[in-house]
């Protein structure tokens, strides 16, 4: 059975972690297959939006600890640099929106993976947990970056140091996810979001993704300059011309993502 599935239809690339028997825990092959899938989604000009999800009951339970034990003691720093960090960077540098279809538990690196996405649509059954402290490890795969920026330092400290399991409803209240729906409605909700972005001005959204990330760390002057730089690029896009023409003609714009 393939550890990862990828399907591309109507501008939507759906990437599914496919190790349901271990709650989509990451072993080496899955890590590298996900890196490859994200590269493919970035390079494929037909892809306008990426959906990331897990097969079965879980989104991802993080690192496969059994696989780690079987392979002997490993260099954890090297593992992060080679396996997980490239995945997080690929999602954040992806010039297309990445939607997390949070179908179940997201634990450890699986939680980091969800937080790295641009939009999170969660099933009512989903949970998130920064489980690292339970085996005396620290946050990794970007959680120490995303978590405090999303919920604030004090709440992030509590979630990290107590491995508090957060329900979907609590995650929505904290701002960790964008939307929570009944499990039976998850596919329809994700499809609606993906369809929107598949027909949106992809270049402008890619620029805004970079701007918002930069805006979390830069000062106002730097952000103002970067906005001006990005606006010039957006203003010279084919989609901008189409948007203006559609406005003047009082019709809905047909964006091509260019």
Strand order of the largest sheet: 1-2-3-5-7-10
CATH architecture of the largest domain: Alpha-Beta Complex
Structural class: alpha/beta
CATH topology (fold) name of the largest domain: 2-enoyl-CoA Hydratase, Chain A, domain 1
Index terms:
16% strand, Lyase 2-enoyl-coa Hydratase, Chain  A, domain 2, alpha/beta, 258 residues, 2 domains, 10 strands, four-stranded mixed beta sheet, six-stranded mixed beta sheet, 2-enoyl-CoA Hydratase, Chain A, domain 1, 11 helices
Q: How would you describe this protein?
A:
This protein is of the alpha/beta class and about 260 residues long. It has helices spanning about 30-45, 65-70, 75-95, 110-115, 145-150, 155-160, 170-175, 185-200, 200-215, 220-235, 240-250, and strands at about 5-10, 10-15, 50-55, 60, 100, 105, 120-125, 125-130, 165, 180. It is about 50% helix and about 15% strand.
Task: Provide a compact summary of the structure.
The protein has helices at residues 28-43, 65-70, 76-93, 109-116, 143-151, 153-162, 168-174, 186-198, 202-215, 220-235, 238-248; strands spanning 4-9, 12-17, 49-54, 58-60, 98-102, 105-107, 119-123, 127-129, 166-167, 179-181.
């Amino acid at each position: 059975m393939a550890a990862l599935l990828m399907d591309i239809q109507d501008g939507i690339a759906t990437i599914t972690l496919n190790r349901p028997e271990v709650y989509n825990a990451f072993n080496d092959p899955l890590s590298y297959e996900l890196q490859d899938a994200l590269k493919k989604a970035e390079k494929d000009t037909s892809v306008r939006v990426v959906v990331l999800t897990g097969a079965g009951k879980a989104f991802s339970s993080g690192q496969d600890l059994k696989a780690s034990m079987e392979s002997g003691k490993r260099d954890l720093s090297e593992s992060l640099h080679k396996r997980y960090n490239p995945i997080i960077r690929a999602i954040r540098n992806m010039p297309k929106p990445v939607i997390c279809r949070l179908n179940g538990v997201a634990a450890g690196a699986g939680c980091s993976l969800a937080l790295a996405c641009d939009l999170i649509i969660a099933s009512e059954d989903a949970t998130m947990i920064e489980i690292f402290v339970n085996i005396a490890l620290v946050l990794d795969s970007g959680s120490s970056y995303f978590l405090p920026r999303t919920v604030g330092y004090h709440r992030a400290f509590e979630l990290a140091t107590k491995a508090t399991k957060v329900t979907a409803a609590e995650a929505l209240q904290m701002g960790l996810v964008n939307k929570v729906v009944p499990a039976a409605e998850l596919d329809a909700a994700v499809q609606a979001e993906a369809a929107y972005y598949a027909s949106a001005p992809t270049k402008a959204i890619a620029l805004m993704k970079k701007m918002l990330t930069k805006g979390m760390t830069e000062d106002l002057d730097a952000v103002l300059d970067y906005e001006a730089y990005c606006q010039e690029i957006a203003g010279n896009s084919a989609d901008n011309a189409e948007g203006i023409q559609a406005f003047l003609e009082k019709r809905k714009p047909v964006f091509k993502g260019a």
